[in-house]
Amino acid sequence: MTTAPPSAPSGAGMDRRIVKPKWRNHRLLWVVGAVALIVVAALVIPQIPPPGSLTVKASDLEIGTAVRAPFQDYLPVRGEVAPLHTVFVTAVSGGYVRPWWSCNSPWPSPS
């Protein structure tokens, strides 16, 4: 067992330089995370279809020979729906509604 010389101050053994590692753990994690993100982006981005495209299953396609025939074009027609008969109930009538055939109406009676 060696002892420090009596001239050495107390705590002299604690004054030593701490060597920091060249690559710390958090730097390594950042690098690994960035590389993983780049790899995932490189694999996912080609799988995303471009805008304006449509992905169709091969089983849903119908392939045949071209023949001369009348052109059939189906256009969706937009329309407005309105009721055929309208009955207005006011507070004065108290919720009482007369049948439409008992008033002066242009519609024929149901009998």
The helix content, as a percent range, equals: 10-25%
Radius of gyration: 44 Å
Largest sheet: none
Number of helices: 1
What structural class do the secondary elements suggest?
mainly alpha
Shape: elongated
Mean pLDDT: 78
Question: Can you offer a commentary on this structure?
Answer:
- By secondary structure, the chain is an all-alpha fold.
- 18% of the residues lie in helices and 0% in strands.
- It is built from one helix and no strands.
How do the helices and strands line up, and which of them pair or pack?
Layout lengths: L24 H20 L67
Task: Give descriptors for this structure.
111 residues, elongated, mainly alpha
Task: Summarize this entry quickly.
The protein is mainly alpha-helical. The protein has one helix at residues 25-44.
